[in-house]
Specification:
Strand order of the largest sheet of chain C: 6-7-8-3-9-10
Strand order of the largest sheet of chain B: 2-1-3
Helix content of chain C: 25-40%
Radius of gyration of chain C: 19 Å
Structural class of chain B: mainly alpha
Helix content of chain B: 55-70%
Strand content of chain C: 15-25%
Number of strands of chain C: 10
Largest sheet of chain C: 6 strands, mixed
Largest interface: B-C, 48 and 68 residues
Shape of chain C: globular
Structural class of chain C: alpha/beta
Oligomer: heterotrimer
Order of helices and strands of chain C: EEEHEEHEHHHHEHEHEEHH
Order of helices and strands of chain B: HHHHHEEEHHHEEEHHHHEHHHH
Distance between the termini of chain B: 32 Å
Chains: A mainly alpha (about 400), B mainly alpha (about 400), C alpha/beta (about 260)
Largest sheet of chain B: 3 strands, antiparallel
Shape of chain B: globular
Chain lengths: ~400, ~400, ~260
């Protein structure tokens, strides 16, 4: 009964609870993106994990090149990811929902050209000279491609190419396969651009986050409310600032999100689209814009989650970093009841606790517990904890 | 009766249409059989070609197996790699099983192999192992499939993904089973474990392995054709299009799906058992979920539910992918680039040609006017109207 | 009357959430002939069919099926859909549910699924029995197509058929399961008068073979012409039953159905 002992230890150790809460908050932030997108277009956005990864890399770039504090880096990553989310929806999923418009040609040229250039750029030939010039040319092209994607997205959002038609031709299987394809593309692009090596935020940038808030010293528990003060040495950390920041960030963002969904006009439109897209169109809501907005919000949340995740584990920035948190957060979304924001928070926390305590029992299998819980829920209660069972109608 | 024979053997490819069409359909067959005349495995280019050929061959079997669930049943399966890994492990462990004084011993470590007699070291032992791996994975497919019977669409996809991750974690962490991160080494210096068939070593530079794969491919294609044309194939097609209507037509949906899962798993296991021979080491670390996505990509590219399509899709996708891996003419493409190509292919296909390169043909053989007349005159006990006696 | 029933329901009820869709319905469909179930939109007619064929599970009540004259009555209340079909109850759907991208002939062959038995191994090994069965299935399918008059389009895709022909094909597919009781859910919906005429002829032909037909229909003319017995439901409850002329003059029916909610057809 070795595992029982380790479980007992974990239960008595406050660190397990703190870890579970932090993990759970991060999963909740990611799960919101899944749950909102699924609620409206009934699609598991497999590329959501890649948004997490891109957000983290953008945050890292901001810290490393612009030397901004990490809080500002989070904001930059949020904005960038919101744009990426809209581009993703426009270039991958929107074409499946309606027939081919003119503006779309730009996105196709952008996608294929971008991929081709990226491959060509990293292809090494015998003549290794003049690569510097080649680098500049290719980067120039890549910038043009990105601009093209952005412009085509904007053009559509602003209706430059005529008003979007309401054409339901979406096939859920096709959308799902597209999502997988997008996930592969983004992951590999990151791999080519930033290589597969693990990176982390510089310690100077995360110093405040890593400082102790509550620590155990010989004189008992010590509270340090000032993170800028001299570091506490010789103290066993109980609660770190980054953990508190993660919890607070999750709660604040969820509150803001709930206000947006419940109290604003766009929130009302979102709820209408989730219920019935056809009718929403007929009521004068531009459903495509609402969907793009949903992607933007979810992606911004994912950026926060990605950076907080890599700050939490200290490093772990690499092209596939988004895969596991992504899939596990989907589990959280299912657990709470898909389409339900409060459910995503609840599910995230449950999955966080499962993983933390499961990991305490069998370190290598922490993810397996989360997956197992997801499978059990989908099989026996697919509508989740807070969701409602749909009346069966043929 | 001639028509029945044509249905059974699916010889229409080679008997119908103009000579040009016939030639196009015959050409791959000729090329496959005549490969030894064209490729010399001893040269460096030849060995690369051989490697690619074998990989393509094994993936053809895997893709045809996956096609049962994805193409015939219309379910998005993301956990197919489980069968590949299980089949490969079963075959490898079987080959390594040794009889010592203490009895039959499974190899606990890769660096230590007990001396003694190998369990499957008899003529045709490897064939038996392939069959065992297939059957084992077939049973696994049935067991894994039963709980998922009610699921469709995204939920089926995500459950298979979750289960595949759990299996992956188990295989990766249980080193006593899979050798952990070192993997299991087949060509061991002390004991030559490379499987043999009729006295010939099966290795990638050896034509015996090539022909073994070719024979298995032909058997697989035959089985798939027969299934497609038979009662169960019709039931699968009905379930894919409209499950409720299929039930109302008296089809036992649960049973038909379970059979499909079993068959799909069987071919996954067979493919896995062949896969482990094409390289000298079996490392379960490499068999992650993305491998299922590559096979899926091949099926989608060729055309879900179409045998010819799946063949074409796999040949294109795997050979392009393997080709990108090679260092040809001094130009080196980064190995990850192939995933970018796969991803883009999926994106563009779903946008412009969601049915794949060669879309599935409508089920069944349209009878000609004469055949119709003949059938009309035929008496059959199956044609009854009125109350049951 | 009960002794001669092929299908009887005993206080059949179903609830969806808080909605009582069907409440305490007792039906006795007599063997042979045509029985109709009519009622305004949303009265719960299709729900009754869905319960009889096992697609919905009733919250209360029993459904008994007497597959042959003098035989035992079988309780089919919670039976699986395919088992009910194999016992001899076939149906068509209100919104046509054909296997759209299959040829017409294959659609009928699917109907023959339950009455054939060749196994997967037999198919793979190409056993002579399986090949014989395959030929017999094709011949029988062609005969059924002939019966519903669709022989001319055997090789077309079901999706490409004209609307009326799709309805006929669905009936052909249902007949291929060899039913003793055939449930038709609004077979004439959306048909022009000419097609309706042909449909009535087909129903007459089916009736002549001894198959009991149980019919949901909005076209009152059609119902009155071909039915032997009529049940009327409204708001999930049975409000009247009897011979067509009796029902036609029932004040409750006129109020609930003919008087208030005159159908456009």
């Amino acid at each position: 009964m070795e595992w029982l002992t380790s479980l007992g230890n974990a239960v008595q150790n406050p660190a397990t609870y703190i870890d579970a809460m932090t993990l759970g908050s991060i999963y909740a932030l990611i799960a919101v993106g899944y749950t909102m997108v699924y609620g409206i277009i009934k699609l598991i956005n497999f590329a959501h994990g890649e948004i997490i990864m891109l957000g983290t890399y953008i945050g890292l770039l901001a810290v490393n090149t612009l030397n901004v504090p990490i809080v500002l880096a989070i904001l930059i990553a949020m904005l960038a990811c919101a744009a990426i989310g809209a581009i993703l929806d426009w270039n991958a999923y929107l074409p499946l929902r309606r027939s081919l418009p003119k503006a779309e040609m730009l996105s196709i040229i952008g996608l294929v050209g971008g991929a081709g250039l990226l491959i060509a750029y990293f292809t090494t030939g015998e003549a290794g000279d003049n690569m510097a010039t080649a680098h500049r040319i290719v980067f120039g092209f890549l910038a043009v491609v990105l601009l093209l994607l952005l412009v085509s997205t904007l053009a559509d959002l602003l209706g430059w190419f005529g008003s979007p038609r309401n054409n339901v031709k979406s096939d859920r299987l096709a959308a799902l396969i597209t999502a997988i394809g997008m996930s592969l593309c983004l992951q590999t692009m990151a791999h080519l651009l930033w290589s597969a090596k693990y990176e982390s935020f510089p310690t100077s940038a995360t110093k405040i986050f890593d400082s102790k808030l509550i620590a155990q010293t010989t004189e008992g528990l010590v509270f340090r409310w000032n993170p800028f003060g001299p570091p506490l040495v010789d103290a066993v950390p109980i609660l770190l600032w980054k953990e508190l920041v993660t919890w607070v960030a999750m709660l604040v963002l969820m509150f803001v999100l709930l206000v947006i969904v419940q109290r604003t006009k766009i929130g009302k439109a979102m709820r209408a689209c989730a219920l019935d897209q056809q009718t929403a169109w007929l009521m004068g809501i531009n459903v495509n814009h609402v969907i793009a907005f949903t992607f933007m919000i979810g992606s911004a949340m994912a950026a926060v989650a990605g950076i907080l995740y890599s700050v939490k584990v200290g490093g772990n920035i690499y092209p596939r970093m988004g895969y596991y948190p992504g899939v596990i957060a989907f589990a959280a979304a299912v657990l709470g009841g898909i389409g339900n924001i409060k459910g995503a928070v609840l599910g995230g926390l449950i999955i966080g606790f499962t993983e933390a305590f499961g990991g305490a029992v069998a370190q290598q299998y922490d993810k397996a517990f989360a997956f197992g819980l997801m499978v059990i829920f989908i099989l026996f209660r697919p509508w989740g904890i807070l969701g409602q069972k749909e009346a069966k109608r043929a | 009766m001639l028509r029945a024979l044509a249905v059974v053997l699916e010889v229409r490819w080679w008997t119908q249409g103009g000579w040009c069409k016939r030639l196009v359909h015959l050409l791959p067959l000729v090329l496959v059989l005549a490969a030894p005349l064209l490729i010399e495995p001893e040269t460096s280019l030849g060995s690369v070609a051989m490697d690619i050929l074998l990989k393509v061959g094994v993936f053809v079997i895997l893709a045809l197996g996956l096609n049962v669930v994805v193409g015939y049943l219309g379910l998005l399966e993301l956990g197919y790699v489980t069968f590949m890994a299980t089949g490969a492990l079963t075959a490898t462990l079987g080959m390594m099983t040794v009889k010592t004084e203490a009895g039959w011993v499974l190899p606990a470590h890769t660096d230590y192999l007990p001396q003694g007699e190998f369990m499957f070291d008899f003529p045709g032992g490897y064939l038996v192992l392939i069959l065992i791996a297939g059957l084992f994975c077939g049973i696994l497919g049935v067991l894994r499939g039963i709980p998922t019977l009610r699921l469709t669409g995204d939920y089926y996809a995500i459950v298979t993904l979750g289960l595949a991750e759990i299996f992956y974690l188990i295989y990766r962490n249980e080193a006593w089973l899979s050798g952990g991160s070192n993997g299991l080494r087949l060509s061991h210096p002390a004991n030559d474990l490379t499987p043999k068939l009729f006295g010939e070593t099966l290795y990638y530079d050896n034509w015996m392995l090539y022909y073994l794969v070719v024979v298995v491919i032909f058997l697989t294609i035959f089985v798939m054709f027969r299934l497609q044309q038979s009662r169960i194939g019709r039931a699968w097609a009905a379930i894919r299009i409209d499950e409720t209507a299929a039930r109302a037509c008296g089809i036992n949906v649960a049973w038909s799906k379970t059979v499909g899962f079993g068959i799909s798993g069987f071919f996954g296991g067979v493919g896995g058992a062949l896969l482990c021979v094409t390289s000298s080491t079996l490392s379960v670390n490499e068999l992650d979920v993305w491998q299922s996505i590559i096979v899926l990509c091949a099926v989608v590219l060729g055309g879900m539910g179409s045998i010819r399509g799946v063949l074409l899709g796999t040949v294109i996708l795997i050979s392009v992918g393997e080709f990108l891996r090679q260092d040809i003419g001094g130009v080196r493409v980064p190995p990850e680039a192939r995933y970018l190509v796969y991803g883009l292919l999926l994106l563009l296909l779903m946008r412009f040609r969601p049915q794949g390169l060669i879309p599935r043909a409508p089920a069944g053989h349209p009878p000609s006017a004469e055949e119709e007349e003949e059938m009309r005159r035929r008496q059959t006990p199956l044609y009854v109207l009125g109350e049951k006696p | 009357m009960t002794g001669d029933a092929i299908l009887s329901t005993e206080s059949l009820s179903i609830q969806f959430g808080g909605l009582q869709a069907v409440d305490n319905v007792n039906l006795n469909v007599r063997r042979g002939g045509v029985t109709s179930l009519i009622g305004p939109n949303g009265a719960g007619k299709t729900t009754v069919f869905n319960m009889v064929t096992g697609i919905y599970r009733p919250t209360a009540g029993r459904i008994l099926f007497h597959s042959h004259r003098g035989g035992p009555s079988i309780n089919i209340t919670n039976m699986a859909v395919h088992k009910i079909c194999r016992l001899g109850i076939a149906r068509t759907f209100q919104n046509i549910r054909l296997f759209t991208d299959m040829p017409v002939l294959e659609n009928v062959k699917v109907g023959l699924h339950a009455r054939t038995s060749s196994s997967v191994l037999g198919a793979v090994a190409t056993l002579p029995g399986t090949v014989r069965e395959e030929v017999a299935v094709e011949a029988a399918a062609i005969h059924y197509l002939d019966f519903v008059g669709l022989m001319h389009s055997a090789n077309d895709l079901a999706d490409n058929l004209a609307y009326g022909d799709q309805r006929r094909l669905e009936i052909g597919r249902a007949l291929a399961t060899h039913p003793g009781l055939l449930l038709l859910d609004e077979p004439a919906a959306g048909m022009n008068p000419h097609e309706t005429e042909a449909l009535m002829e087909l129903i007459g032909k089916i009736r002549a073979t001894g198959i009991t037909v149980f019919l949901i229909e909005h076209d009152v003319q059609l119902v009155m012409k071909i039915s032997d017995y009529v049940y009327v439901v409204d708001h999930g409850e049975l409000i009247a039953e009897g011979r067509p002329d009796e029902v036609q003059s029932d004040p409750k029916v006129i109020e609930a159905y003919l008087g208030v909610d005159e159908p456009a057809t």
